From TrEMBL:
DUF7882 domain segment(s): 1-96
Region (Disordered): 89-110
Keywords carried by this UniProt record: Ligase
InterPro entries: DUF7882
Name by which UniProt lists this protein: ATP-dependent DNA ligase
């Protein structure tokens, strides 16, 4: 589990793969000087609610990864996440699109 730390105050845990994709989207938006909301579901241990932060280029963000290797990035997922970040509701974590070449699991079969 990786950690996103916002303004040295708020810390949220995300899977390393999710966090890597969030970092790309947040970095792209903040590089352009764009502010936006980021909303996610809280861990059940934190009450099973949701959290929202206002991301602004002047507020520090840190990403800490548990694993030492960088995850492979999925361009389609980055585009899907960016679409939410560009909406009025702000960035929200959406499921990763499955590769059209990925094998079906038994639960995916009709």
């Amino acid at each position: 589990m990786g950690k996103l730390t916002y303004d040295s105050i708020l810390t949220a845990d995300f899977d390393d793969r999710v966090l890597a994709h969030i970092q790309v989207v947040v970095g792209a938006k903040l590089r352009r000087g764009e502010s936006f909301y980021f909303t996610w579901r809280d861990d059940p241990q934190a009450g099973n609610g949701r959290s929202t932060i206002w991301l602004h280029p002047g507020i520090p963000i840190a990403y800490k990864y548990f694993g030492s290797r960088s995850p492979t990035l999925n361009r389609e997922w980055i585009e899907a996440l960016m679409a939410t970040a560009n909406s009025s509701g702000g960035l929200q974590i959406v499921p990763e699109p499955r590769s059209p070449f990925a094998p079906l699991s038994s639960k995916d079969e009709p």
